[in-house]
Amino acid sequence: MLNQLKPLIQQQSKRKRGRKAKAKPIRPSRKLELDYTRALLAIVDDMHTETVKALMPLIEQPNIGDGKRIVNDGLFSDFKTAFSRVSLSIKNRVAGIADALAELVVSKQNAEVDKQLIDLIQKQTGLGLTGLAQDEAINEAIAVAKAAQVALIKSLPQQYLDKVEQAVLAGIQSGAGYFNEELDAALAKIESLTQNRAKLIARDQMGKINSRISQVRQESLGITHYTWVTMRDGAVRGAPNYFSFYNHNKRDNKVFAWDNPVGDGHPGQPINCRCLAIPYVGHLTGGLTGEEMMAKQPPISEII
Question: What predicted TM-score, i.e. pTM, was given to this entire model?
Fold first, then answer.
């Protein structure tokens, strides 16, 4: 699309005086990431509250007159019944909100990508786009991203409950007297681990959603290359204190082709990757093409 408008873009570029604004990467929305994190943490908090409410009273009930319940055969049956009930309730509740939450996150980031891309094209080429049309490729990318979010949201209760069941069974099978305090501590640890996973999901998935939708949207416009940019700090793969098979530091400020992902993928696609892509449109205003820029760089094998 943009290549067909290249003559017009170059004419506008010649008329435009002064320095063009520096091209910026397409970023995931920080606000949306925080909202997604809060939503997932609320799910975890709700799961934990309901689980503790259902399970802890079973062992806090007096038994043999001393105020704490002893592990016995009846306790296993009680836990099994209560755990089945609370598991079903939690899974149904999360399943009921997963689709809506996934739809909200993906659709908002899609809109954010379009907004940033339109702004970049306008500043770099002088071409004003009022909106970007939906097509089969972008609709598929959005659908895949939504399905991935639904699966991950539903994985939170599954993994949480699996850990809870293991902790309960371990305590019962040990047969070693009282275990209400031990179980309470175990549930708190499981909650903390699940909270950390929720934060990772939100952070990692925002990068992945942004990267994939950006790629598809840019390719549909005829933007075939991008410039890789890192956060340029100690948490980048390849930094002195961050050992990794892949070195993102070496990719910083290099040009890559969207149809030829290197190593572990495009910016934002590797797990927890914070790198970003700046759409390369220099050739539209008289600069080198993406292929020509890549030819001036070290071979791909040296910068993966």
Answer: 0.88
